[in-house]
Amino acid sequence: MHDRCDRRHRHRRHDAVLPATDLHPRTGRPDRPPNPATDGTRIFSSPVVVGDRILFGVDVDGQRGERGYAVAADLVTGNPRWEHQTDVDAAGRILNDGCGSIWSSGTVLPALGLVVFDTADCHFGNPPPTSESVIALRISDGRLQWQFRPRRVDIQCDRDFGGTPNAGITAGGRAIFLGVGSKDGTYYSLDPATGRLRWSTNVVFGGVSGGFVGTAAYDGHRVYSSTALGDYGRIVNRVPVLCQPGNPRDQSSQEPSVHAFDAASGRVVWQATHAASFGATTVAGGLLFNCPSFVDVLDVRVAATGRLVRAVPLADSCWSGVATAGDAVVLGTGSTAQGFPAGIVALTPGGGTPQAA
User: Fold this and answer.
1) Yes or no: domain 3-280 corresponds to CATH 1.10.10.10
2) How many CB atoms lie within 10 A of CB 106?
3) What are the angstrom distances between the C-alpha of 177 and each of 25, 96, 148, 207?
4) Separation CA 341–CA 236 (nearest Å)
5) Strand, coil or helix: 34
6) What is the pTM of this model?
7) Distance (Å, rounded) from C-alpha 274 to C-alpha 254?
């Protein structure tokens, strides 16, 4: 079950929320007139507003003849302020070969004037220079400030970056932490100013439906995240082919599936099992919130120890992130496996009316 396909069912088309007079299509071929009959472009990236511009990424899900890229649009008019091309060759020439997709939202580093995105793989590989990378762009003009690419080869393993990078920002806007998980089952901590690797910790093999898919949580001291299911293989002649057959870690179910890291060193603080998830993890009030992929519950854990406090029953699977507001926990239900009933759920103590903080 490929997570990029799964996500399509959980997001509205990016142009559906704007009045018709304000439409600014972001297609897989921005150099051509939009063609909804052939263009399968998606925007999974939540928009980030910085000053007078909106920043987001574009995903084309590997569709040949199209390309992914990052965009800054004018906040008032929607007109593009800049585009940063992520589907290019070593000379910077645009390839339009279905690569360069960006799923993540932008993470802003205010004092550095940067926004950080990450990029997916390219047809189950990571050809240079841009696939499976973390990139920092200047907010002012979209130019590349730095790029991080793990020193590994992706041979049909689908080792995308997809989650939004975590940042630790001081009251003065200085970034003191930056990190992100990959579908290779590794969480990477980077120097926010240079992109140089500080530490990396691998916890599972990863693969097509494995590794870190949902965005992690960061509380200033630790990073918390769930990994997804495992490697179900890419389909070749209707037969699933694993990334590394014979590797004992390359399994369809990979445990442990819940992880807490020391943010300074990458040391694993605790882990838990049987809670693989495609959704983002939330930390609030000393508790962790995350929904396991195929169990209709919301797991609530103690952040310090990983102890499961409660598995809150839900009417449907939850593959979304979880928000906390006052005494309410808010989440979305619905998945590729089960699309009905689906909607937005607010959970409160005793089921009462949500109260503001």
Assistant:
1) no
2) 27
3) 34, 34, 15, 27
4) 33
5) coil
6) 0.91
7) 9
